[in-house]
Design a protein that fits this description.
Belongs to the sulfatase family. The chain is an alpha/beta fold. The chain has two domains: 6-393, Alkaline Phosphatase, subunit A; 403-492, Arylsulfatase, C-terminal domain (2-Layer Sandwich), CATH 3.30.1120. 20% of the residues lie in helices and 19% in strands. Helix 4 runs parallel beside helix 5.
Length: 497
């Protein structure tokens, strides 16, 4: 190896196993991502660490499963920083290895120490945990404040129009979706019916910061241009870019040039927009002459969902499209659809080309695997669930993990807010087997089954990938053995060697 490769993680938001044509989608076409898959290795056994955003990203960036820490649920837009300064992280490790590090896109890991004042320096945030540069949204597309932060400041903020945010009660005088549904581009459920920004009602209330608010239709182009600026400025040194795109998370409001492109309504159009973005970004890497020196990992933070609060026709227009592919359920679920996600890795001349890998890998492994790649040692007490999966990640070995812990948390409604503050549900995949730990009666959220039952469930994923035949009663010994193994992994406080 001449020099350390650039590393880019392109992390989609709620993209399902079945949402790409390289993974079997026939209604949606994703030619640019398919080309990336052809140029590298496509994984069929890759897992996001959790079935929702915040815990998956927490685990990916720290190497610790989120369920080991408290507070690792879907965060409101004004939550304090979850990963604390001093904590070991992927960007910090790469920085120690001489990398320039940046994040562009969705953050959703909290900011500040308590009540953030959006009109001042905002810290701690990405810059305090290992990123040299950040251009990011605080939380999600559907949560206030709908502004972008560059490093520690809200970008384009007019000091004469200060921002205020509240998640409990209305601030300012701007209309809400609940009061004025006639002002909306599309209808929304009560949780998504607070302050209207750009014709879309959000979760939470905000006022001020008018000049700083993003336009949903232009946001992806804006993030792409910041990602391009970042790699262009750092093309002569190794860099790490965490490019956290929003597609196809709600609200889905793609740029007009993609409207109608999928025939499936806004959700499909958002996936086409994502595919285009990947293509444009790859083309830029080629123009900069760094494509051959760049390792790209493309994946998703959790499984898919059709209806997630907005009336955008995702359900009605899905047709035969199966966003989770052959897997059961999707986002929020402990079934495979919750965390089994597409993952593509490419690095010309290094990652095996045109390969489909069956190796079992979890995003929590990025830390240890990339540390091995760049020659960094991990502190003994850090990245406690991260396995060195460098060889399988490079498509050079099918020997992945022997087991993976899957995770979700139940959604709970209190008053008008919905949060994943309920019980934590864990499952263990080991070889062909999957044990879902017994917890509570069946639940569902927005049409996705969560997968809970009071008793343990056991599935054979080789014979029954759709998790239809619960074998727990037929095979009590294996069920008990796997349940004990899961208990021990939890108790030990560490699962990596
Ligand atoms: C939920 C939101 C959902 C989405 C999700 C986070 C409600 C009813 N639903 O609480 O719309 O924002 O949080 O998604 O409030 S994630 O991909 O960031 O985990
Ligand atoms: Ca997500």
């Amino acid at each position: 190896m001449k020099r350390k490769p650039n590393i880019i993680v392109i992390y989609a938001d709620d993209l399902g196993y079945g949402d790409l044509s390289s993974y079997g989608a026939t209604t949606i076409r994703t030619p640019n991502i398919d080309r990336l898959a052809e140029s590298g290795t496509r994984f069929v056994n890759a897992h996001a660490p959790s079935a929702t955003c915040t815990p998956s990203r927490y685990a990916m960036l720290t190497g610790d499963y989120a369920w080991r820490a408290s507070g690792t649920q879907i965060l409101p837009g004004d939550a304090p920083a979850l990963i604390r300064p001093g904590q070991f992280t992927l960007p910090l490790m790469l920085k120690n290895a001489g990398y320039a590090t940046g994040v562009v896109g969705k953050w959703h890991l909290g900011l500040g120490d308590g009540k953030v004042d959006w009109n001042r320096e905002i810290a701690p945030g990405p810059l305090e945990i290992g990123f040299d540069y950040g251009f990011f949204m605080p939380a999600t597309l559907d949560r206030v404040p709908t502004v972008l932060i560059e490093n520690r400041r809200v970008a384009n903020l007019d000091p004469a129009d200060p921002i205020r945010v509240d998640y409990r009660s209305k601030v300012g005088s701007e209309p809400t979706g609940a009061e004025h549904p006639e002002l909306l581009k599309f209808g929304a459920d009560p949780e998504h019916s607070n302050t209207i920004v750009n014709g879309i009602s959000r979760i939470g209330y905000m006022t001020g910061g008018k000049a700083a608010r993003w336009s949903d239709e232009g946001l992806t182009d804006q993030l792409l241009s910041k990602a391009i600026d970042f790699v262009t400025a750092r093309k002569d040194q190794p860099f790490f870019l965490y490019f956290a795109v929003n597609e196809p998370h709600v609200p889905r409001a793609p740029h007009p040039r993609f409207v109608g492109s999928s025939g499936m309504g806004p959700r499909g159009d958002a996936i086409v927009q994502f595919d285009w973005t990947v293509g444009a970004f790859m083309q830029k890497l080629g123009q900069l002459g760094i494509a051959d020196d760049t390792l790209i990992i493309l994946s998703s933070d959790n499984g898919p969902i059709l209806f997630d609060g907005y009336d955008d026709q995702a359900v009605e227009r899905a047709g035969n499209h199966k966003p989770s592919g052959p897997y059961r359920s999707g986002k929020y679920s402990i079934y495979e659809g919750g965390t089994r996600v597409p993952m593509i890795v490419s690095w010309p001349g290094h990652v095996r080309e045109r390969h489909v890998s069956t190796a079992l890998i979890d995003h929590v492994d990025f830390v240890a695997s990339l540390a091995a790649l760049v020659g960094q040692k991990l502190p003994r007490d850090a990245a406690v669930d991260s396995f060195d999966m460098l060889a399988p990640l490079m498509g050079q070995s099918e020997r992945g993990r022997e087991f993976v812990v899957e995770d979700t948390k139940l959604m709970v409604t209190t008053g008008t807010t919905v949060a994943s503050s309920g019980a934590r549900i864990l499952a263990l995949r080991s070889g062909d087997w999957k044990l879902i730990r017994g917890s509570v009666e069946p639940h569902e959220f927005h049409g996705n089954e969560i997968g809970t039952l009071p008793h343990h469930q056991l599935y054979n994923l080789a014979r029954d990938p759709g998790e239809r035949e619960n074998l727990a009663q037929k095979m009590p010994d294996l069920t008990a053995r796997l349940a004990a193994m899961l208990d021990k992994l939890e108790r030990d406080g560490r699962s990596a060697p």
